[in-house]
Amino acid sequence: MSYFNEEAVKMLLKLTDKKIEKMSYEDSMEKLELVVEALEQEGTPLDVGLKLYELGTALSKKCGNVLDSTEEKMVQLLGTSQNPVETPFDPESDGR
Q1: Is 21 part of a structural domain of the chain?
Q2: In this structure, what is the dihedral angle of CA atoms 81, 85, 88, 73, given to the nearest 10 degrees?
């Protein structure tokens, strides 16, 4: 387990709700992974940990909203809004 990296945490804590709102899904996920890593570091002060947790919650919500929106669009593409057709994803036939 790594030790508290103050500089990395300072960069994360500069993220505001407005900045998060403008971020892409990929950037949000990347920052969320960094938040998780920072929370797992030994020696993280409790007050910093709480701020990181709040930031992680905001990033997670952003990612969830993007995924939900994407799913809605996909369902509409597979059917109509009145008669959506949901087809489960089968990696054997649909994926890699």
Answers
A1: yes
A2: -20
Residue 13: is it exposed, middle or buried by C-beta count within 10 angstroms (0-12/13-18/19+)?
middle
CA-CA distances (angstroms) from residue 30 to 16, 17, 36, 74, 84? Answer: 16, 16, 10, 24, 32
Helix axis angle, 46-78 relative to 25-40, nearest 10°?
150
Whether 76 and 84 have beta carbons less than 8 Å apart is answered as: yes
User: Each residue of 50-91: pLDDT tens digit?
Assistant: 999 999 999 999 999 999 888 877 776 766 656 766 666 666
What range does the domain containing 27 cover? 6-94
72: in domain: yes
Give this prediction's pTM. 0.73
